[in-house]
Fold:
Amino acid sequence: MTARSARWNVATRLLHWLSAAAIVAALGLGVWMVRFVDDAAGKFDLYQRHKTLGAAVFALAVARLLVRAATRGPDWPEAMSRARRAAAGAVHGALYASILATAATGYAMVSTSPIPLPVALPGGLSVPNLLAPDFAASERWKFAHLACAIALGALAAAHAGAATWHRFVDRDDVLSRMGFGWRA
Ligand code: HEM
Structure:
C-alpha cells in the first residue's frame, strides 16, 4: 500500500466522526438552550445535558490527541502545495486548541458559578467543581466560553469546507481516507 492510498487508523476514524457529531450537537444544544428555551425546568435540564456532552467532547479530544501522538497518519497528496499543507496543519492545531478551550471555559464558568452544580457523568459519577464561587469571574468565563465556541464553529466550518473542496474540486482521497467505505 502506498502512503497516498493509506487510510487513517480505525481509532482515529472512529474518534473523528464521534467528535464531529458531539461538537455539532454541543454547539447546537448550547445555542438552543440559551437563546430559544424559555421554560425554566426545560432550560435547566438542557444545561445539565450540555455540560455532560461538553465533557464527552473534551474526553474525545484528549483521546484523539493521545492516538495521534502514538500513531502516524497518511501523507498529504503529492499535488498539495506547501502553503496548503501549512494552512491545514494550522487549522487542525487551532481546532484542537478551540475544542479544549471551549470545554475548559465551560467548566470554569460552571465551577465559579454562585450555584455550582457539578457536571454529571455516566454511571452516577460527576466532575467536581474545583474553583471557588465568584459571580464576576463566572460571567467572564461565560463570555470566554461564547468566544471560544464561535471560534470553534468557524474553524469547524472551514475544516468541513476544505474537506469538501478536496472531494469535489481537487478530487483526491483526503476525505475518503477518513471514511469507512467510500473511496474518492
Ligand atoms: C467543546 C464543547 C462545548 C461546546 C462546543 C459548547 C458550546 C456552547 C455554546 C454554543 C453555548 C451557547 C452560548 C450562547 O449562545 O450564549 C454554550 C453555553 C453554555 N455552555 Fe457550553 N460548550 C461546550 C462545553 C461545555 C462544558 C464542558 C460546559 C460545562 C461543564 C459547558 C457549559 C455551558 C453553559 C452552562 C452554557 C450556558 C451559558 C449561559 O447561560 O449563557 N459547555 N456552550
Q: What stands out?
A: The pocket of protoporphyrin IX containing FE is lined by residues 23, 26-27, 30-31, 34-35, 47, 50-51, 54-55, 57, 99, 102-103, 106-107, 109-110, 119, 142, 145-146, 149, 152 (CB under 6 Å). The CA atoms of residues 13 and 178 lie 5 Å apart. Residues 10-75+88-178 form one domain. The first strand starts at residue 119 and ends at 120.
